Amino acid sequence: MNCPYYDFKNMQKLFAGILFSIGFIFLTVTVSSITMKNPTEKDRSAALGGIILGVPAAAGGAWIVWGLKKKDEKLQETRDRQIETTFLELVQANQGEISTLNFAIATKLSLEESKQYLDQKAKQLDADFNVSEDGSISYQFFIS
Hints:
Elements: H1 4-34, H2 41-93, E1 97-99, H3 100-107, H4 111-125, E2 128-131, E3 137-140
Antiparallel strand pairs: 1-3, 2-3
């Protein structure tokens, strides 16, 4: 997609990967310095430096990934609410009858996603199915 949010998101993913890599490298230095048989003062110093630089870098990468995950969850919740609202508006506007094609057009979902959503709603709300002469299926939801 050519959307500024996705470009920024990709940059954040890249930056998180770089931070994780830096953190991993420094923490590897720490582990290798600590596991030596007779560590010298220089080895202990390298281990401490690895911890000081590695932990914040790895934690920064984790924080960015966590933030992206939360943002994606919020976007999905918003999208789910939009789909639910569109579903309810179509049910009301069409006296309870919705076709998979009309729902797909209104929600910008694929035909398969629309069918799955409407099948789920039909089970949940005890709807009927109507099959037209051309084989297309529409759902009849009962509104009161």
